[in-house]
Amino acid sequence: VSRPVMRAAAPVFDRTISDEFSVGVDFGGTNLRFAAYSPKDGVLESVTLPSRVKDGRDAVVADMCAGIRDLIARHSKSRKLKGIGMGSPGPIELPGGLLHDLPNLPGFGGLELRATLEKNLGTAVIIENDANAAALAECFLGRGKTLGIDSLCMMTLGTGVGGGIILQGNILDGMNGFAGEVGHVNIWTDGLRCGCGGHGCTEPYASATSVRRAAKDAIATGTAPGLAALAAKNPDFTPRDVGLLAEAGDADAIRIFENLGQALGIALSAIVNTLNLPLYLIGGGLLNAWDLFAPALFKELRSRSYIYRLTEPSAEDLRTHREGKTYIEKAELGGDAGFLGACLLPFTTWPEARR
Amino acid sequence: VSRPVMRAAAPVFDRTISDEFSVGVDFGGTNLRFAAYSPKDGVLESVTLPSRVKDGRDAVVADMCAGIRDLIARHSKSRKLKGIGMGSPGPIELPGGLLHDLPNLPGFGGLELRATLEKNLGTAVIIENDANAAALAECFLGRGKTLGIDSLCMMTLGTGVGGGIILQGNILDGMNGFAGEVGHVNIWTDGLRCGCGGHGCTEPYASATSVRRAAKDAIATGTAPGLAALAAKNPDFTPRDVGLLAEAGDADAIRIFENLGQALGIALSAIVNTLNLPLYLIGGGLLNAWDLFAPALFKELRSRSYIYRLTEPSAEDLRTHREGKTYIEKAELGGDAGFLGACLLPFTTWPEARR
Questions:
Q1: Is the ipTM of this complex over 0.90?
Q2: Mind telling me how many Å the CA of A270 is from chain B's nearest CA?
Q3: Nearest chain A residue (CA) to B302
Q4: Is residue B87 within 8 Å of residue B338, measured between CB atoms?
Q5: Does A326 sit within 8 Å of B266, measured CB to CB?
Q6: Rounded CA gap, A12 and B102, in Å?
Q7: How far apart are CA A169 and CA A135, in angstroms?
Q8: Is A148's CB within 8 Å of B1's CB?
Q9: What does the angle CA B110 – CA B116 – CA B117 come to, to the nearest 5 degrees?
Q10: Distance between first and last Cα of chain A
């Protein structure tokens, strides 16, 4: 029998557990976010430290282990440790947690994250791709919980475009932990180069980075006065600044988010036609621009996916969330999804299945 | 809890069962193919009838029921009937087997296939999308069995491009039975209209129909003398005729299959990046052109999918089928995959889960 692409059975997340806790870590290029978590009582404590990436991987690993030990020490007096979970930027090979070369984490390629942490801590650690962990959190604690839906695909629009797929409460890891990389679904065949080495992927059209790039491209044409004024005033302008300009009616800024919505709609059409899930979530920093990009997203999706057309919710369905319809919605947990998902890993997966 | 996107647990296909049999039907636009099947002894008997689509759906349903009854009558003397399975062209809504409007089956839209058959037969019938049934057969009886791999995605290149996804021995049905429609993954954003109502899907670039269309387009340019001579000699030329011309060295015919391979490579890059499965199979009538299209397929996939690049099998891996690599291979069961998959349904799924 070949390596399982998911864990063997659907997990049951028991929300009544109060005598056990987990420690979860969201390993990001900017911050390490730690939390101690109990299913019944939620987040017991959370801690954020800067990621000392420039000091090298040993320094970062030392910080991870110190943070985990601190939380274990403080909470194991009153509760029993269920396990430790960590979400890491991909590509990360599972079950060993082997990091491949990461653009945002120079020097981390080749690190066997799980073995390294386990050797330091003397206990088991469950590693996941950070976007998968975030999707798991949305399933059990976020939008999925709100709607009573346990199968979903989440796209996280940040510096890149992350993705995670949950099927009946299980993370779809795929053979090597690489499943769910929906940011690298082709949308424009002869399109822009992508950080993954491909071209025409969703990521260079639907990330925070893409909004800045599109704004600069528009400014370079000399026909986008609003964006030019923004960049002149603040060369480090953010996607949020472009969003505010769009909300104020600037046509060039509006077009940037329309193009982003179209890109997401094309990508989602492929995903909807492949997976036919009840729920697709958009999360990440660009979510505050939902009203700017969503109309173009739905228009494109409707024109490309007959499965969506057959299952598009009516206005009434959007209120009642009737079963059998395809819902495209906003994620609920914001930036907390990563560490919450890491906290859930020990309660919803079997570490022994990942050896 | 929402409607399951897969059955609840991984099925065990018990190959030692000899005292039970199933009846499977592959419902196609041209033929109805029936078989009686035993896990231990394989196909006990198979029957092919023409699909009397022109006589209307009642005639076709009557033929289905008569064929099923005949096989049950002949084989239930020596074995116990385990169940009845049927593969039907999609889009077909599960679990009810509601047929939507099918281009090749006019007049069948709105037919509740399962209820209709069950009412006629007085016993339970399990309905599946035909491409899903074919993928299931390849998993348990075809290439998956040969390699010992139980998770795969199969693309069937026929009149259209069908798709089926098997995860740990389970068909991924999705919420409504529409999962696995990988023939409708976007590959050329502003591309050709597709029968699904979308545009730029894989299907109009990688089906048997697309080979004929591409040949006609090439002839229309006036610069494809070999293809023009073929069409003049035989206006009803087949994709196989174009393949023979390509094998004989005709550059225009060669290009048609290179373009088809490129289309498949783009589609597969999206699927590989989304699912990270150990095995992807190409099946259907165009499979005999594998040598003509496969090089372009692999070239495109390599350039677009970093997951494929990280997991591409070496020449040694292709001999030993080492775990952890991504294999793109030929399906083994040919045109029998459809009815074999239908025969497997009662042995590998739980009808009660589909109610």
A1: yes
A2: 5
A3: A198
A4: yes
A5: no
A6: 40
A7: 10
A8: yes
A9: 130
A10: 15
